Queue: 4 jobs
Job 1
Amino acid sequence: MAEEYKRYKTIHHTKLQELDDAITKSLQMGWQPFGSPYIVTDPQGPMICQAMVSTIGPMGATQGK
């Protein structure tokens, strides 16, 4: 039975529009949101984050380049 491997990344920006643009680009590359957006405190101010996931499937099939 072939295994699937998952890759994770977090997109983060201080401006909502920049986060939206980065998420849109990642969606076009096969990544999917993982959970809800969240905010963290950074020395430069609040940072908006979104975790993303990509699956590398059986027989070398890849999503999320």
Job 2
Amino acid sequence: MAPSPLGDLMVKTTIDIDDELWKKFSIKVIEDYGGRKKNDVIEGLANAFVNTPKKTIEEALTDWLERESKRQSKK
């Protein structure tokens, strides 16, 4: 694991995912959240899956993205 610019330890990983699904996911992320946000969306989904089982994934992802946006805007 390597330190991130934020000071937290980060891990780089590889996943195998269907090419067409990845393309659709990429387009949806760009449409909904803007370009170059796939890592943020995946991290938000993982966070939601682990920490917020009572919310829908979409609600948890929205909450996480809002918190991240506020955190980054404070820099």
Job 3
Amino acid sequence: MRRVQAASLVLLAAALSAVALASAEESPSTTGPIDPLYRDVEAGMYFEKVPPTTGPALTIDLGKAGRLTLPPRFAEQDVLEVKRVRYLGPGLEDAVVVGLHAGVPDGPTQAFALVYGGSGQQRVLKAELPLRQYYIGCEVLTLGREVVLAIHGASGAHFHDLWVYRFRDGKPELLLAKGSAAGVDLRPDPTTDDPQVWVGIENWDDPDWNYASGKRLWNVYGWTGEAFTFNPGLSTAQEVALDARTNEYVQRVMSNLDEKQ
């Protein structure tokens, strides 16, 4: 039984650290606090590549806003959201974001956010942003004088992922990628109204800690004008990377199993 439980924990750790930043498009440039597990090929597990489809490409009618066509390999996948965004920066004055799940039958899913630009009847795919397991939604935020796209995702039962992208000349730049099983919040900075990113941290010093109702700690990241940086004054825990939090979780659960033997 203990071997089965240990194997399950290894799989859980792999699921928590699963990363999908491989893309057929050019990889976005990166700036700011990005957990290695969101960008390091060696650190995380990739989902299976989406198989090619033999069906016709899926075209989505946007009414007066024109239409867009999904890449052929996404033609038979689940489209969750089609959201028109009035402005995402120069080159994307009138954008459309498509959130979808791709995968294989009885296999893992991988989420994507596709960003379309252009005008007229046929929209042009500008960016293909690979996420993790599930797409939740997106929202437009203002950082100083710039507009950015925040994408919310999930992995497993309750793991919250957050990506923040800036677009310059229609090209994506990843400003932040964070995730936590204890949640991720966006809160306005009381002095600037720029959004702050609050990453939940497990409070293992609390003997009654649990993910459902425990009082979590926080790593807080604020916008400094060009990048997100860790704010030790607002944070209630030292900055802890995702892989370190995952490893500690597995070690504590294994220790509890040993004590029950």
Job 4
Amino acid sequence: MCAAVALSCLSPPAQALQRASRPVTLDTPDTSEHRRPSVAVDARGDAIVVWQGPGGLQSTSRPAGQGWEAPEALLFSEEHPFVALDERGDAMSLAGGYISVRSSFRPAGGTWLSPESLPGLAEPGREPVAQGYGADLALEGQGGALAAWVDSPHPSAHAVAPQFVQVASRPAGGTWGSLTTLSEGQFGAAHAALDARGDALVWWVRGDGEGSVAESAFRPAGGTWQAATDLPAEWGSPGSLSIALDARGDAVAVWEHLAGPNHVVVSAFRPAGRRWETPQDISAPSSGATSPELVMNARGDAIAVWNSGYFTSSALQAAVRTPGKGWGRPRQLWSSNLAPVAPHAALDARGDAVVVWVGVDGLPSGSTVEAATRAAGGAWQKPYPVSARGQIALAPDLAMSARGDAIVVWELEQGRRGVIQAATVQLPPRKPERRRSRSRTRR
């Protein structure tokens, strides 16, 4: 029997299907730096990537089954871009900078429209705010958008500047509405999620260290924001909190918790419209689990990935949650003397999964984007490289359509130049579904 997190439990890669495509460079050949790519894939498998270029944000798209198109400019230069696609293929990008949060819209098959500035926090007699810190974007299937970010007015010489969690909504085909302030204090980032009905959830961690408190705010579809509330006190001071919603509005949360001398990953479930249930540990009690990330599909399948280990022994682990059954035992996807960096996970509608991360090979050999895949109900396959070995690959992002089209993008260092590359990841063969035999009754 396999141990709970034994690497030997991973299945060998399938034949030709268990590979990634050859990397493709997306940006134009120049000597500039291109950074922080973000990728989205719609239900048909059409893909779009936005990244930070030398003169502002740039983008390229790829119709399903075709090649990548020439890059185009988005006409604004904010940093840390996000991109999302709705079911129709309409795209929304969001980026935050020093004095603004701006977005741009691209109708399916069209070009990017002029950018819009989101409403900002202005106070008479004060300098402009520094917006966009810790921004996030959520897009529901019909095109309604939700943006959340942290505003931080410029601090005076003698005081710590207060920060504000802000949200704004944009109906499909409309413009951004008025600003809503959800909380005031000191924050790391704000995070947003929408379910299929348009119900919205925003969460954040207020404070730092042992005194931190997790908070959230809810807005029913078509309604107004409810007052922010503390998440259950039994959650303690959650680190790396991640929450996801399925199509019904059921929520799953995972976070890092200090239990005695060890860090563990903890999870809680909240049925739509009800209270959070009792949390449970999903990592081994002495594994040193940190920095969890969570994804969930429309029907409620979920994947959590996290780093584990101490000092000279590090690993990447994952656990699968099935609706009605809860979390399975964690599985080890990767082991090294250097911790894996920037893990991301994605699920399709059936529960097929892809996880990518940066495996640090050590200097001067570089770092490589690695991937592991799992067919719904199957075993995790052994990881394999997506980017070329012997190079320096950074900052991967991952997206997958409901039918299983998975695309990975990343930065590649080439001397003083940074380029954006992409590859598709193919899933392992699915298990054939068993057909129920019909018994015949003799007459």
